[in-house]
Design goal:
The chain is of the alpha+beta class. The protein starts with a helix and ends with a helix. The radius of gyration is 38 Å and the shape is elongated. Helix 15 runs parallel beside helix 16. Strands 12, 13, 14, 15, 16, 17, 18 and 19 form an eight-stranded mixed β-sheet that branches. The protein has a five-stranded mixed β-sheet with strand order 9-8-7-10-11. Strands 2-1-3 form a three-stranded antiparallel β-sheet. Belongs to the UvrC family. It comes from Aureibaculum flavum. This is UvrABC system protein C. The UvrABC repair system catalyzes the recognition and processing of DNA lesions. UvrC both incises the 5' and 3' sides of the lesion. The N-terminal half is responsible for the 3' incision and the C-terminal half is responsible for the 5' incision.
């Protein structure tokens, strides 16, 4: 893949179900496909060696990729079908079976028929579907026919034709599949009640008909017609997995535009869906750079006008997440529940994914812009006078006051700068005194920076609550840095952010990038301090054991460790091996110490 922009688009695709569209250099659509995992599926086009010649040609022509995120694999299948019908991409015609999915139709006519069709005709009839499983649709119709006696003839059953006796009952009447409305043997009111019950069943509203199902099944059972009763039970079980509606395709939503928006400090992202005849036929997300502190409402209003003009939309109604003012000619609907709300939520989800992908792309090709945005967000969230380009975080570590140490980790532009990390042995504090240790290490750190004329950080983070924060402040006061460096404390339990002289802590949004960076700082400082403390404790334990041997000094211990690497290996070494390092006299003392110890144990 030589196109850098294309490579970037593939890298940042989401791992979710959806539909992808390939475009050539002239922005003409080449191919529409569905995927359970967009990133894996699209990546496969550019990583596999394709045996099929036309696929190789297709891949060479791809200049850009667009995608639409959906909720389920079935939704992706349906949306793919709609887009192929709408745009008829060249390579879909060559590579895919261009089939149409079936619908269940309740015909607009006296004594309506209910049947399966692949052709949706605008004649006022009701269409439900489409069904990706023909078996499910046929099972549904079969169950309906078991429960209700419906006509299948194509006669025009007007009151005049029935009254004049134009038609005669057929075989369906005699085998009790129809009640004979053609001869006036069934009232239209009764028939329409059955149609209403059928409409509810198709929509998945089984509650109102459940008792009727049971009655029919029990009647078969009472009449010892067990096969028929079992047949109805099997069909009801099959329909338990039936998905009555689809968010992507719904005949009740027709000829409308959907808009949603998500924004941050610097940019807003507006998603647009165009729905025609109950199906999504277009999706577009645009990025808007904020100039001032514009509201989402203002930005969405501007975007609606601009996008509708760009795509020449003539829809008279729009669905949006909140009220907007776009003139009197367009009906504005803010859905609160149901299918309309689901389609707005899906639009918002696509805007969020687009934003995430832009962030990923920016990190790769323009890291400065990403960093600037993060720094501006942190300055705002933490109420700082400057952007925290350099942050330093301190943590203490000790066990019951033994081997007290501290760490200082440094983040520059939101990322760890490990070469600037520092570790400290606590010198002036005895016993388990975290407050005293914090005061000492903060003083040592910034006295040295001042003495050496090095750059000071814009923010200090203290791992701990008010006590540790107060101790650190004492050192800053002594050094005259109290007002020159911002300082905060973070308490582990509730992730509370404490400020000097402010009794009320700040609680950041758990999903905010600012809190994630502060947590990463805190975790790094803790890890660095713990590692240093463990190493010091381990080294101390080894040296203490060897130095406990009578007649063995520090220099001898260092010689042994240099040769054998650990006290354990010294204990397992032969007398001759030890003699070669420290001589016969001292080697005998070390050898006897470990071997006499083993005998005693």
């Amino acid at each position: 893949m030589q196109n850098t922009d294309l490579e970037l688009q593939v890298k940042t695709l989401p791992n979710t179900p959806g539909v992808y569209q390939y475009f050539d250099k002239d922005d003409a659509i080449l191919y529409v496909g569905k995927a359970k995992n967009l990133k894996k599926r699209v990546s496969s086009y550019f990583t596999k060696n394709h045996d099929y010649g036309k696929t190789k040609v297709l891949v060479k022509k791809i200049a850009s990729i667009k995608h639409i995120v959906v909720s389920t694999e079935m939704d992706a299948l349906l949306l793919e079908n709609n887009l192929i019908k709408k745009y008829k991409p060249r390579y879909n015609i060559l590579l895919k079976d261009d089939k149409t999915y079936p619908w269940i139709c309740i015909k607009k006519e006296p004594f309506p028929r209910v049947f399966l069709t692949r052709n949706v005709i605008k004649d006022g009839s009701e269409y439900f579907g489409p069904y990706t499983s023909v078996r499910t649709a046929k099972a549904l119709l079969s169950l309906i026919k078991e429960l209700y006696q419906l006509r299948t003839c194509v006669y025009d059953l007007s009151q005049k034709n029935i009254a004049t006796g134009k038609y005669k009952v057929c075989l369906e009447y005699h085998i009790k599949n129809c009640k004979g409305p053609c001869e006036g043997l069934q009232l239209e009111e009764e028939y329409l009640e059955n149609i209403n019950a059928i409409r509810n069943i198709i929509k998945g509203n089984f509650k109102s008909s459940l008792e009727h199902f049971k009655d029919v099944m029990f009647k078969f059972a009472e009449n010892h017609e067990f096969e028929e009763a079992h047949s109805i039970k099997e069909k009801i079980d099959l329909l338990a997995n039936y998905q009555a509606k689809s968010t992507v395709v719904n005949p009740s939503i027709s000829n409308v535009d959907i808009f949603s928006i998500i924004s941050d400090e610097s940019f807003a992202y507006v998603n647009f869906f165009k729905i025609m005849n109950g199906a999504i036929i277009q999706s577009h997300t645009t990025e808007i750079k904020k100039k001032l502190d514009e509201t989402d409402k203002h930005l969405l209003e501007l975007s609606i006008i601009e996008i509708r003009q760009r795509f020449n939309s003539q829809s008279k109604e729009i669905y949006v997440p909140f009220k907007v003012n776009v003139g009197n000619e367009i009906k504005v609907t803010v859905p609160k529940q149901g299918d309309k709300k689901q389609i707005v939520d899906l639009s918002l989800r696509n805007a969020k994914y687009f934003r995430q992908e832009r962030f990923k792309q920016i990190k790769i090709v323009d890291p400065d812009r990403h960093t600037n945005r993060i720094m501006a967000q942190m300055q705002k969230d933490l109420r700082l006078p400057k952007e925290p380009r350099q942050i330093e975080c301190f943590d203490n570590s000790n066990i019951q006051g033994t081997h007290p140490v501290a760490s200082c980790v440094v983040f520059k532009n939101g990322k760890p700068s490990k070469s600037d990390y520092r570790k400290y042995n606590i010198k002036t504090v005895e016993g388990p005194d975290d407050f005293g240790s914090m005061e000492e290490v903060v003083h040592r750190r910034y006295k040295r920076l001042l003495d050496e004329g090095q750059e000071l950080p814009q923010l200090i983070v203290i791992d701990g609550g008010k006590g540790q924060l107060s101790s650190a402040l004492k050192s800053l006061d002594v050094l005259g840095l109290r007002k020159k460096i911002a300082i905060i404390g973070i308490a582990k339990r509730l992730e509370e952010i404490f400020y000097p002289d402010d009794p009320i802590p700040l609680y950041l949004d758990k999903k905010s990038e600012t809190l994630k960076i502060i947590q990463q700082l805190r975790n790094e400082a803790h890890r660095f301090a713990i590692t240093f403390h463990r190493n010091k404790r381990s080294k101390s334990a080894i040296q203490t054991e060897l130095e406990q041997i009578p007649g063995i000094g520090k220099q001898t211990v260092e010689s042994l460790l240099k040769q054998f690497k650990s006290a354990k290996r010294v204990s397992e070494a032969s007398l001759k091996a030890i003699e070669e390092v420290i001589g016969t006299s001292r080697a005998t003392k070390v050898y006897n110490y470990y071997h006499l110890k083993k005998k005693d144990s």
